[in-house]
């Protein structure tokens, strides 16, 4: 882990399920409350669904009521990259996986922690690995 992952758009399209491709490589946003991790309270690690890098830990996950998985901070500060996003007539801060450049979601300044960050992340951009290293029961 840690090496930059570079793939062509064609390669990503072949590797990712269509709905994941739209979020990760086209910066689409899944519908609120549609994602599989919105209400996940299991202990474990959330990884980039494109390259597998560990991005968020269950310990920083909280219920924001937004309909998207929400975290107060990344698992490792430089696992993500932040970038100004002026699309859709808004000024937001986009969150990307630093290793592969995939879109994850946005970060807002209305979170519950000391630095008030709310990382609002698409479930489709994530894969969950339970604390025991085995996938949780479906
Ligand atoms: Fe990635």
Short note summarizing the structure:
The protein is of the alpha+beta class. The chain contains 2 helices and 9 strands.
Describe this structure in words.
- This protein has two helices and nine strands, in the order H-H-E-E-E-E-E-E-E-E-E.
- It has helices at residues 9-15, 18-26, and strands spanning 44-48, 54-57, 61-62, 70-71, 80-85, 92-97, 103-108, 118-121, 126-130.
- The mean pLDDT is 94.
- The chain is an alpha+beta fold.
- The protein has one domain: Peptide methionine sulfoxide reductase (Metal Binding Protein, Guanine Nucleotide Exchange Factor, Chain A, Beta Complex).
- Fe (iii) ion binds at residues 48, 50-51, 53, 97, 99-100, 102.
Order of neighbouring strands in the sheet with most strands? 3-4-8-7-6-5
Number of domains: 1
Q: Beta-strand level of the residues, as a percent range?
A: 25-35%
What name does CATH use for the topology? Metal Binding Protein, Guanine Nucleotide Exchange Factor, Chain A
Order of helices and strands: HHEEEEEEEEE
- How much helical structure, as a percent, in the residues? 10-25%
User: What would you give as the CATH superfamily?
Assistant: Peptide methionine sulfoxide reductase
Mean pLDDT: 94
CATH 2nd-level architecture:
Beta Complex
The largest sheet is: 6 strands, antiparallel
Oligomer: single chain
How large is the count of helical segments?
2
Secondary structural class = alpha+beta
Rounded to the nearest angstrom, the distance between the terminal CA atoms is 27 Å
CATH class: Mainly Beta
Q: Over the alpha carbons, how many angstroms does the gyration radius reach? A: 14 Å
Ligand set:
fe (iii) ion
Low-confidence stretches: none
Number of strands: 9
